[in-house]
Amino acid sequence: MRVVREFSKEGIRISVFSWNNKYLLKYELGPMEQTFKIPETDILEESDLNLFCEGAFFDQVVLRFKEMGESFQKQLENL
Predict the structure, then answer these.
(1) I need a labelling partner for 44 at 20 to 30 A (CA). Which of 23, 50, 61, 78 fits?
(2) Which domain holds residue 12?
(3) Cβ partners under 8 Å of residue 6, min gap 6
């Protein structure tokens, strides 16, 4: 597995890996993570991966983390 890039945006750690002819985009926030696998054949240049870190897609990642966090917190309260 090759690390293509690692950085943070809005408190979310973003790691981009190249592995098995796929790019793995891993978003991490606290105890939660989201991973997306994209075939390398769908990406013309590695810089095209930046589109997954902005706009509507990234907004949905942020929203999903909020929903995940709320579910996780409710479950912890029910222990």
Answers:
(1) 61
(2) 2-77
(3) 13, 14, 15, 16
Longest dimension (CA), the chain: 47
Instruction: Write the single-letter amino acid at 27.
Output: Y
Output the average pLDDT for the chain.
96
Q: What is the pLDDT at residue 63?
A: 98
What is the count of structural domains for the chain? 1
Residues 6+ apart with CB under 8 A from 25: 14, 15, 16, 35, 36, 38, 49, 52
Q: CA 66, CA 58: separation in Å to the nearest integer?
A: 13
